[in-house]
Amino acid sequence: MNLKSNNPFLKNKSFTKPVEATVFDAEGRPVEIIDYNNTMTINGAINKSFILLFVLLASSFFTWYMVNNGQNPYVVAITGGLIGFVMVLIASFKPNYSQYLAPAYALFEGMFIGGISAVFALYFYPEIIMQAVLGTFVTFIVCFLLYRFKIVKVTEQFKSIVVAATFAIASYYLVSWILSLFTSWQPVHHGNSLMSIGISVFVIVIAALNLFLDFDMIEQGAKKRLPKYMEWFSAMGLLITLVWLYLEILRLLAKLSSRD
Question: Each residue of 90-142: pLDDT tens digit?
């Protein structure tokens, strides 16, 4: 079966390379040996996801502390975001370095999240941050339970729809950004109009659907007994989706707040 994820990070060809270990019995027939110490497991990916999440949260809180003590939040956010993006690019081409790149990504992405969150708290209200965190956590738990109990099944058609929708969102954001740089055109998703709010809700739904594909890809990677470093790689991919989901929820709450 051709497995695909709408998370570009999880499309890496390493997810199609099982660990090869051929052993032959006394009669020369190949025997399958499973070495769980050197292969990817679901529990291993989950544990590493928690580690990365802890690093991201710790970095975010420290960044928040720095901003409250006079650090420019924009400088911290841009620096963390750019370095985090570089970590993702390197890991995409060198997944075997994921055990080092994934924690680094979580660290610098935490700086980005902390800086952006501080800006939103300043311009809107402090409680918006906890509301966005809670919304992200609840969405993750609901999606995980729906996937765990097979209420939502990740079929090829499901994947195709989510991939197409994600590509459309990415294309729209890119074109909007370019036009806003060189023209006076105001992107539709900016502001607090009902259409802008509707777009945010749609993007949040697509981001949440990413979680189903990420869960499926991790499960399939474990079944294929991919190399151990793919636990870090897949955990990094899942964290990317969670960061996207958090930012979209934060933006939606800001739009709703500005309408009051």
Answer: 999 999 999 999 999 999 999 999 999 999 999 898 899 999 999 999 999 99
Q: Which residue type occupies 138?
A: V
Among the listed residues 260, 129, 251, 125, the one whose alpha carbon sits nearest the alpha carbon of residue 196:
251
In the block, residue with structure tokens 């956590």: 137
User: What number of residues does the chain have?
Assistant: 260
CA of residue 145 relative to chain centroid, distance: 18
178: tokens are 């370019």
137/76 Cα distance (integer angstroms) = 25
DSSP 9: G
The answer to whether the beta carbons of residues 140 and 211 sit under 8 Å apart is yes
Letter for the amino acid at 99? Answer: Q
Strand runs labelled E in 217-256: none
Encode 61-91: b = buried (16+ Cβ within 10 Å), e = exposed: eebbebbeeebebeebbeebbebbeebbebb
Helices (H) and strands (E) in the chain, counts: 7, 2
Contacts of range 28-34, beta carbons closer than 8 Å, 24 or more positions apart: 34/225
Residue 227 DSSP symbol? B
Amino acid at 111: M
